[in-house]
Amino acid sequence: MIRYLGKRIFFMFLSLFLIVTATFFIMKAVPGGPFTSEKNVPDEIRAALEAKYKLNLPLHEQYLDYLKGIITWDLGPSFTEKSSTVNDMIKRGFPVSAHLGAQALLLAVFGGITLGVIAALKHNKWQDYTAMVIAVLGLSVPGFILASFYQYFFAIKWGWFPIAKWEGFEYTILPSLALSAMPMAFIARLTRSNMLEVLSQDYIKTAKAKGLNTFTITVKHAIRNALLPVITYLGPLVANILTGAFVIERIFGVPGLGREFVLSITNRDYTVIMGTTVFYSIILVAAVLLVDIAYTLVDPRIKLSDTGRE
Amino acid sequence: MKKSIFALVSSIAVLGAALAGCGGQQASTGDQNAPAGQQPAANAEKKPQLLRLNLHSEPPTADPGIAEDTTSGAIIQATFDGLTRIGKDGKTPEPSVAEKIDVSEDGLTYTFHLRDSKWSNGDPVTAHDFEYAWKRALDPKTASNYAYQLYYVKNGEAYNKGKAKAEDVGVKALDDKTLEVKLENPTPFFLELTTFRTYYPVNKKVVEANPKWANEASTHVGNGPFKMESWEHKSKMVLVKNDNYWDKDNVKLDRIEFSMVEDETTELSMFENGELDWAGAPMSSLPTDAIPALKDSGKMTTQPIAGTYWYKFNTEKPPFNNVKIRKAFAYAIDRQSLIDNILQAGQLPAMGAVPPSMALNKDGYFKDNDVETAKKLLAEGMQELGISKLPTITLSYNTHEGHQKIAQAIQDQWKKNLGVDVKLENKEWKVYLEDLHEGKFQIGRMGWLGDFNDPINFLELYKEKDGGNNDTRWENPKFKELLNRSAKESGEQRLKTLAEAEAVLMDEMPIIPIYFYTLSWVKDDDVKGVVIDGLGGVDWKWAYIE
Amino acid sequence: MQLTKEHFEPISVDLRQAEEIKRPSLSFWADVWRRLKMNKVAMASLIFILLLVACAIFIPIFSSHDYYTTNLAGKNKPPSAEHWFGTDDLGRDVFVRVWYGARISLEVGFAAALIDLIIGMIWGGIAGFYGGKVDEIMMRIADILYAIPYLLVVILLMVVMEQGVVTIIIALTITGWIGMARIVRGQILQLKAQEFVLAARSLGADNNRLIFKHLIPNALGPIIVTLSLTVPTAIFTESFLSFIGLGVSAPVASWGTMSAEGLAAMKYYPWRLMFPALFISVTMLAFNLFGDGLRDAVDPRLRK
């Protein structure tokens, strides 16, 4: 296992390096730059700006510069928000997004698994259909529509929650709900599907034959084995949800990190693009590794280093 | 699902603002007659002098030397003061930090005599601070995008472009209280320019001691009516009255609290819920679909600003190398109907390039929706080109719901009026800009918001074929000559020459003017005295709660 | 019930017939179809989907309205006899636009889902089955693709490619398959450790047969569920891509575009959001119910 982990960590760094490299060159290939604007400034001013941000250097030097910045975790100043560095932006935005994301994640995982288990236990009964209609709605109504709905009814019409901003627990509820809907629905469907499979397995029949009650069977034997696809899905989900969701943050006025992923690109704010991408990628590759480790814990028969051929 | 998809699958309305870059709203309003609404009966006692506003987004900077956007501009306007400041009427520049201004006979030398005034940290404001600030903005090392605003000062341009030294720049503190400015040319609107943020002073001691002074509330020092109490980046900013301000007796507000909510619908909801005192322009905008209802409620105020929304032709590519065909397309648009049904915020149809506030010709140079003439011109133009049918025309615009709506309506009007097939093509903002500058378009949308209140700002764009903001590849010797002539003239004569130039432009039609921008907002009835100038800048100096 | 002698009849023991298989021999898919037919909910969903496709093809052809003609005077009108679903902000008939939009949304949604499914199954299947280095390299490639900012890639694509449905489908599938590949790989990792794989192997099944005949069919549950996420994601991503200029250009609108545009008007002209959103939801519901039925029909353990 240790050897396996060592190898994995080596590959993690390799992936990060490749992500950074690819992102850098794609970013440079995309038309427009940070100083492309509606009102063209005189060439000399543009040159001065480019010199200030080192955009006049040859491409490979810029690339090495970014690489150095990433290794020393000094991600540079933002081109657009002149009063902030990329480090500042991550330091400020990430805790907010992570808080919101963690709440949404908890809701999604517990809500989704509960719904899925109920649906599977009552296969093709009304409970199953109700749960699945809810889940399908969650999948087919995207977050931004849901967010607007929640805001309209729960905040504006009925005044139960604040409309927007980020100033305390009550401010986190609507965005968390909106953010969790889609993953919850998906987890519910994954759980249901795998529970159905597991429930028809021989060892569950054995457990039933031994006289164990449904609850014990479900909790002790079935869920654990049905969770595998949920865990797979959780890996990237964790990385996505913790680093913020642009639209939800925007609608609810949450000062999170999600907006930077989108706006840095539309602004061609190169340092922020690189910084946020690296930050996200680190979380992503770590989460993916954790997923693989979780596989072996849930089902000890799984051997990751196994080449599987004979 | 992937991060970006996760972030991106999103409402067009939401993305509209985010991806669009901009292209149109910025702002202004004078505080005219507040319509009587159904506010709860006002308290008899004095209300707290607190204004709750939405700043829309994080101001990129609070440093007047490098600010280039309206959000930063508004904060700087509140926390700084210039030699002159636009008065309560939103138009006239009045002496502010300067107490007395002497202008030489030839209009080339301005001498500003400063009054006793202080920075928010108690330091005196001196002429040296101005000299330092201007040279700093012009210094190529500062790399200020708006440095060109200072090009009117002698050698300003040369210094900025590395062709002169700092000492050569025509600004000099004769003593602590006297600032002497020499100009390149007599500039009739120079005192208006000094109301602009790039001309504001910065505290030399503070800036030299800490290059990051403008990044946090604790180190930010200004000389304006308000000072920064706190700045929670991306979330909140609080300004409070500056007791060191020279004109503090005229400042009635104690406190301005800004939220930073980027979604316009959310902002309007917060306003309707009583959490904000103001929604819409100039910091943000009102959601288009809400405008009819707001208009009916009588709460909405609209004010024109100096800006024109236009389509540009690529005059080098057929069929738009033919002036008659260009004109046919321009005449066949029903601007009034676009305004009444799509824009809905009291915009004015544009039959000229220069906005009405500085209008050279109030009636326009042609008739709106003149289908008959358009058809005739199209037929003639096609004959000249020797074609019997126009190929499909591509109309490009940058990604934005508003531009898309207008483009769809115009597409349909051209189809109905001229029988032309038009294909719409939208592009991401910066890609669009590059394509436009490189001539990769047939007809493309653009807009121009005045940098200062003078027609030259709009006409100059089309002077040179390769000018950075021309895009049409159009050039005309007569037009050029008229503009050159106007630079040497003044007063009525100058305006007449400029009007002649505009007539040439409209006769050649390298652009289709569509409408003149307005700003619309809703506000609480008891908010008074907010000044929004003709360029869309906002000033809260005189604001109060009644 | 009383059992009497009449209820029984003796049969002759015929040894030649004893070895004969009574049930008609069915191929795998014929068997699936037989069982699917018995599932009323799934069949109703299937019929609904077919109807939907037919309507999307024919209604725009035969309607007296079209999707592009604007009528500014008649904008934002609520549903009426003339305009069943009302009109939009440029006075166009929402009913026809919804059906026209169905063409794009269904086409894009399913083409993307199908491609994602195929690439994802093959990629995930191979990575999971062979494990070790193969797995490591294949899954790290997936991670890298997944982490590169999508918007950047899309903007680059926009510059390189022509606007249109094909471009959209390419943009959707560049990274769309990764989720599927991860799910399949996870399932295969679990399944290949089970006894039936060993059994199949000892019966001489080769690797391809093992992956695609034994392992993938057993992972169909999560695969079908993942598809139920892929389709709506594709439909909404399409609206985003079209919006930034990659896809179909206005005035053509898809369901995603229409609901995104309608959202801003939700408070004032709810029909502009309601109808396209309703169509997406109901269609998704039908597909999911059908998918569930299919899953049940395919699952060998649920055979009765």
From TrEMBL, chain C:
Location(s), subcellular: Cell membrane
InterPro entries xrefs: BP-dependent_transpt_permease (IPR050366), MetI-like (IPR000515), MetI-like_sf (IPR035906), OppC_N (IPR025966)
GO biological process: transmembrane transport
Primary location class: membrane
Protein topology in the membrane: Multi-pass membrane protein
Keyword Transport: yes
Domain of life: Bacteria
One Gene Ontology CC term in the entry: plasma membrane
UniProt keyword terms in alphabetical order: Cell membrane, Membrane, Transmembrane, Transmembrane helix, Transport
Residues of the ABC transmembrane type-1 domain: 102-291
Transmembrane annotation, as ranges: 41-62, 108-129, 141-159, 165-184, 219-248, 268-291
Keyword Transport (UniProt): yes
Family under the similarity heading: Belongs to the binding-protein-dependent transport system permease family.
The protein's name in its UniProt record: ABC transporter permease
Classification of source organism: Bacteria, Bacillati, Bacillota, Bacilli, Bacillales
